[in-house]
Amino acid sequence: MKKIEAIIKPFKLDDVKEALNEIGIQGMTISEVKGYGRQKGHKEIYRGAEYVVDFIPKVKIEIIVEAARADEVVKKIQDAANTGKIGDGKIFVFPVEQAIRVRTGETGKDAI
Amino acid sequence: MAAPAPAFNVLDEMLNTGFLVKFIPEFKGIINRIQYDRYHLYPVDRHSLRTVQILKTLGAAEGDSKDPLGADLFKEFKIRRLLFWTALFHDIGKGQPGESHSKSGAKIVGTALAKRGFKEKDVETVSFLVEEHLFLFKTATRRDLYDEQTAITCARRIKDVNRLRMLYLLTVADAMATGPMAWNGWTATLLRDLFFKILSILEKGELATREAVETVESKKEDILESVSEPKARQKLETLFNFMSPRYLLYMPAELILEHVQLYNDLGTGDFVWKVIPTPGSNTRTVTVCAKDRPGLFSKIAGTFTLNNLNILDAQIFTWRNNIALDIFEVTPPPDQLFESERWDRAQKHLHDALSGRLDLSAALSEKMAAYRSSGRGTRHRPHRIAVDNQSSSFFTIVEVFTYDFPGLLYIITDALFRCRLDIWVAKIATKVDQVVDVFYVRDFDGQKIDSPEQVAAVKAAIMEVLP
């Protein structure tokens, strides 16, 4: 099994969810995260007061899939989240040692 | 209700004793209406009261649950009555079955306030705010804030700065009164970012005025009407979504149609262009439709110079599907007898320049050297370069004021390209021998160049290439 972690632009969340639903992936964990990177934050001045934003809001999606499906899922996410501009995000793939369903105790691929 | 904090408890007591419903019958539909999700911590009636309370305390910005921008904005309002009534009524539509609660709420509040003798303008404002109370939040979390079109669409809907400020305050208070999933540092950042971008368009743009909206809408209608075939019409409508806001505003309808034709001819090629005699003048108008890429403009300018075509005026537009639409007014080729051959040759040069087969700098260096040695270029004339990062939230605006000479546009745009800048919009104008070139740029990463070092570097790079 693999864990796929994708950091994407917030407004792309719906597109990515839809794309994943299309290939039968329904379950995922979503968090609102703060990003720091090449896409700089910036400051605004309003009525003499400075408003500094030093992070960029991003969304993190975490999905666990069977290893055989990992490449397909990564491609789907990338295509859906891509705008071609800086800040589109990154996708990481991790190995998963074990998965357990809390309600039934099922393990392995029956748990995901 | 507009009295200081203790009065809030009066509202609370009014709610608890049932007096509020007697006083404001419209409240009946939302009494104890539970919102069955993890997002809303309170039933609708309590939430509405909390929104009012939070709004009142927004001005005292302490602690990190407060919003400093909200505090500043709130303090600007001397008369806060409308804000409080809006906050109290913003979810009143949740008691109604059927259509969106924003729309139904707007109707209810409109009637309620008119009944109570509020001025028509105020009733309109509150109805608008209730109807749109989710708009900012939805846009901030669901739309690309780095795309100018997003802010322009919002600016056109909100229409004035006062309504923007009120809407922001309502949005913040509403989110704070909903629960921590709605209001936190993450959502606050998005909302603030959107607020500033819309404010900038409203305060400085000609892109969001009522006239601008009407002009663009009627233009689109006229164009669609002139196309009878339904498939073609559909393609046109899709294309409208890609055309940049400035393009749609400034380009006459007949020309838009011509450009669409040009775009259809582009297909998978690098570029296509159309050369016609400029109406009312002996110059030529060249319209180029190309796949956009950094350096495109400089390559076109260089190609013209290579073929002894002097650029008098230019307008550069970039569509959102990465298509460049560039219109040049150039002097006619020196020998007009074989004009079409000249243009064919120029076209080949541009294809070669774009594919890398032709090194424009090298090809032009001889020409430019010859020009300089003819003496005209060596006389010192004043130049001015201005880099403006205030007027637009989306682009850095570079303005070059100088005197014309053949190849000027090429060397400036080439300098910009070497600074890793991408030109999105440009307006070139020549009056006799004076030139004003305005470039709206972003760096290759799509960002403005606003650090002092970057600005200095751009100015230096352009100064260096000017004689």
TrEMBL record, chain A:
What name does UniProt use for this protein? P-II family nitrogen regulator
In terms of InterPro entries, this protein maps to:
N-reg_PII, N-reg_PII-like_a/b, N-reg_PII/ATP_PRibTrfase_C, N-reg_PII_CS, N-reg_PII_urydylation_site
Q: Which GO terms describe its cellular component?
A: cytosol
Gene Ontology molecular functions: ATP binding; enzyme regulator activity
Subunit structure, per the record? Homotrimer.
Q: Sorted alphabetically, which keywords does the UniProt record give? A: Nucleotide-binding, Phosphoprotein, Transcription, Transcription regulation
The record, for SMART domains, names: P-II
Task: Indicate where the modification O-UMP-tyrosine is found in the sequence.
Answer: 51
The family assignment reads: Belongs to the P(II) protein family.
Extract the signal peptide range. Answer: none
Task: Tell me the domain of life.
Answer: Bacteria
What GO biological process terms does the UniProt entry carry, in alphabetical order? regulation of nitrogen utilization
> Per the UniProt entry, what species is this protein from, by scientific name?
Candidatus Desulfatibia profunda
Q: Name one Pfam family in it.
A: P-II
